[in-house]
Amino acid sequence: MKEKAATIESEQQKILINFLNKFSSGIEQRLRLIMFTLSVVMTLLAIFLHLSGIMGINKPYFNILSIFYFTESVVFFVLFYHHILSLEKAFFWFSIVSQVLQSVRIFSLTYFQPEMYNEMIINNLIILYTLLLYVTFGLLKKAPIILSICTLITIFGVKYLQPDNPNNSIISIFGVLAVCTALGAVISQRTIHQLESEKNEYQHTEEEVLRVFNMTRMQLHTYLKMNEAMVKGEDATQTFFDMIDDQAEKNILEAAENRKLAKAMQRASLSDVFPSFTEAELAVCELVLKGKTQKEIAIILGKNENNISTVRGHIRKKLDLEPEKDLKEELLKILNV
What pLDDT, in 10s, does the model give residues 189-217? Predict the structure, then answer.
């Protein structure tokens, strides 16, 4: 029996995860989708309880309002589900229309004053505030402010139509809660949006580093730990290079060599080190130091390979290099790299 219950729970979790992955991405989107779904479910449940006679006032006018409420909830969710409206727009307009219908219901209760209308006004204000909380937790821009203003207008309208209502003090509390919640929503949205932006920037930087060095996240974290160990006087270099593949090792060593060369070239200009070299010879030297082949140098400088070979010969002659000596290695020695 327990295994069956666990299987059912696992299947439900899979369905929920697939639903969230299909219609949202990122923390903000996922949280917004959860709040939108919960608000629609809450609305449909409240309408079902009213129309079934379990709660609320069973009058034709109020039943019609509930039917409108039910219809708009289903319509906005279907529009979102079929990608006709984005999640933000569907949630936003659902909350606005729901707020208007709830306000109309509260004004109607205040005006017609059916049996137990005071209790029903409080109940509907609770629903209004719950909707405001869902919008706030869903990080929906502008909606908390608009809903709070509408709630305040509704509260002032009720107090104007019924200045002697014994529940006016309780009703006023909802106004204070609405204002405080709206202010909290604005502050939290800005904070969470900033954190999300920083997270996305970090992920982009990390992915770019992994792409350049052809490394996995685990290898990158190992490299960072290696640097931390070296700061502490420990040597974890061998452990790191044992964990990465040949291509990643090659990329890292090439990057380190290029950086070392760049530092050397910053300290001393090639023309200062080799004052007798022509501009063509200096250009070839620079590319040789960067590890370019003769063919690559020819393509970069727009020359043919025979011309580059001749220039390399002049460089070797000026440096008095023996045939077996490597030009790049000798240049690095001269630059003290």
Answer: 788 778 777 777 877 777 777 776 666 77
- Tallying the residues shown for the chain, one arrives at 337
Q: How far is CA 41 from CA 44, 74, 136, in A?
A: 5, 10, 17
The Cα 46–Cα 13 span in angstroms is 25
Q: Which residues of 210-241 are buried (b: 16+ CB within 10 A; e: fewer)?
A: eeebbbeeebbebbeebeeeeeeeeebeeebb
Residue 135 near residue 42 (C-beta atoms within 8 A) = no
CA distances from 334 to 140, 268, 290, 319, 325 (A): 64, 11, 15, 10, 13
The tokens describing 112, both together, are: 């017609």
Exposed e or buried b for every residue in 157-191, given b needs 16+ CB within 10 A? ebbeebeebeeeeebeebbebbeebbeebeeebee
pTM: predicted TM-score of the whole model, two decimal places: 0.58
What is the per-residue pLDDT across 212-245, written as a single tens digit (0 to 9) for each?
666 677 666 666 666 666 555 555 566 666 666 7
